[in-house]
Amino acid sequence: MTSGDWTRRQFIAAAAAGSLAAAVSKTVPAYGNLTKKASTLALLGGTPVRKNKSLPDWPYCDQKIVDSLEKTARSGSWCRIQGGAHAVVTLEKEWAKLTGAKFCVATGSGTQSLHTCVEALGIGPGDEVITSPYTDPGTIASILSARALPVMADLDTESFQLDPADVERRINENTKAIMPVHMMGQPCDIDSIMAIAQKHNLKVIEDAAQAHLAEHRGRKLGTIGDVGCFSFQSSKVLACGEGGAIIGNDEALMDKCYTVHNHGTSRQGLTETIGPKYRMNEFEAAVLLGQWPGVLERHARRNENAAYLTKRLKDIPCLVPQKLYEGTNAGSFYLYAMSYHKEHLNGIDRATFLKALNAEGVSLSPYIAKGLHREPWIENVLKTRVYQTMYSPARLRKYREESACPKCDQVCEQMAMIWASGPLLASHEVMVEIADAIEKVYVNRDQLKSA
Predict the structure, then answer these.
(1) What is the pLDDT of residue 17?
(2) Which among 87, 141, 326, 335 is placed 20 to 30 Å from 108, CA to CA?
(3) How far apart are CA 396 and CA 412, in angstroms?
């Protein structure tokens, strides 16, 4: 067999089977950089694949952001309702344009954007909204703040997204909306979610907090449901510390969102309804606008680097990249997520695997330790007077009984991801090193028995 007959897959198989000596001989040629990786793990005293662990800093900052902030500071207009204020209004126009939406309302956080939509849709006490247990607490906080009931459906274990079949199973006469979460910045099974919503006459509030510029079948996430919500919290791919936005194409609904987020006061200056004050301030908008020149280039680079990692990992069964649904054109890759399968690494637990990778200069980590269905809010909230008044004892009892989400538990136990918005902006050479380090640990997995 000549070197031309060998592929990386064949080399990994040979190395994993104990043929390392052959791999560095003329009989079994070394493939690329694998000879170096087929050595002692750094955890056990070997040389790490990556000696320089530095990755791009996040949140992103450059002189354009500083200049934008200075311009706003010197303007003296620090709130959108002041005369001459312009940063928030400009941001709303630019974000709508970038996402292909007709309208945008900027808020002080992603949670605020979600809560604004819940209120604008008239969802309140006695109503139910189906969402994911595998998400930031802000998702359910937006529902609880309206005194509605967040009903958590289980996940698809390969995509880490809501399982549409379980969503439909949990619909009842009180269900008013579905709040799908585009986890890790990748599209959920949005086609199925929209079909279920149409069938049952439900509203869809897209929680796209992590999914800036992600695209499904040519549509930007956030434009597919009735409304879409984003976060600009400091870890996000477009960040200003805190901040959020709502996008949509229904002018009447978006006007309601504006009124709710503006303490119940409409664009006409009339106080019309109940509403908190969720307005984004001018400084947050200035930070975001300062990032506009490079936002598409950074988006493209994350997708390119993610595609490379996915290609390299296809022959390493202990780490399986997040499944992307058919029709996914691009993701935000806020996180690069994988599931860890210890059965392909001699039963070595996730903690040891991550420790071995860290020694090689690559930091992977778990994400959400436990789903929201396992947090104490359920008992604390269901015992409150308002929930015991607005929901029958039978409904609250059934809610407790049906709160289990075993597939979410599995996802929490298996998750291993690259955190967060900065690392995938690194050079291609860094992506090669990350993949090489993972490959080295897999090829030499027998050594972990003594770790």
Answers:
(1) 55
(2) 335
(3) 26
Q: How far is 157 from 362, CA to CA, in rounded Å? A: 25
Among residues 58, 54, 42, the alpha carbon closest in space to that of 436 is found at 42
Euclidean distance between CA atoms 434 and 437, whole angstroms: 5
304 is written with which tokens? Answer: 């390119």
Between CA 411 and CA 423, with CA 417 as vertex, the angle to 5 degrees is 160
Mean pLDDT of the chain: 93
Short-list 279, 273, 180, CA closest to 221: 180
Is residue 72 within 8 A of residue 290, CB to CB? The reply is no
- Cα 52 to Cα 127, 330, 361, 409: the distances in Å are 53, 30, 7, 35
DSSP secondary-structure letter at 75?
Answer: H
Other residues' Cβ atoms within 10 Å of the Cβ of residue 44:
13
Report strand pairing: 103-107 vs 215-216.
unpaired
Strand partners, 179: 131
pLDDT tens track for 175-226 = 999 999 999 999 999 999 999 999 999 999 999 999 999 999 999 999 999 9
N-to-C CA span, the chain: 36
Residue 416 three-state SS: strand
* Strand pairing report for 244-248 and 103-107: antiparallel
Q: Are 370 and 403 in contact (CB under 8 A)?
A: no
Q: Which helix (H) or strand (E) holds 149?
A: strand 149-152
Q: Is the peptide bond before 420 cis (omega within 30 degrees of 0)?
A: yes
Say if CB 246 and CB 227 are below 8 A apart. Answer: yes
Q: How far is CA 169 from CA 153, 197, 351, in A?
A: 9, 12, 35
Query: Concatenated DSSP letters for 46-81?
Result: ---S-S------SS---HHHHHHHHHHHHH---STT
Beta-sheet strands, E only, within 183-248: 203-207, 215-216, 219-220, 227-231, 244-248
Q: Are strands 175-179 and 319-321 parallel, antiparallel or unpaired?
A: unpaired
Q: Which residues pair with residue 204 across a beta bridge?
A: 178
Q: Pairing relation of β-strands 227-231 and 244-248?
A: antiparallel
| Domains with residue ranges and CATH for the chain | 3-57+295-368+412-450 (3.90.1150.10), 63-293 (3.40.640.10)
Write the pLDDT tens digit of every residue in 86-139: 999 999 999 999 999 999 999 999 999 999 999 999 999 999 999 999 999 999
pTM above 0.90, yes or no: yes
CA 1 to chain centre: 45
Instruction: Choose among 348, 345, 344: nearest CA to 451.
Output: 348
Q: Is the peptide bond before 29 cis (omega within 30 degrees of 0)?
A: no
Say if CB 441 and CB 416 are below 8 A apart: no
Longest C-alpha distance within the chain, in Å? Answer: 82
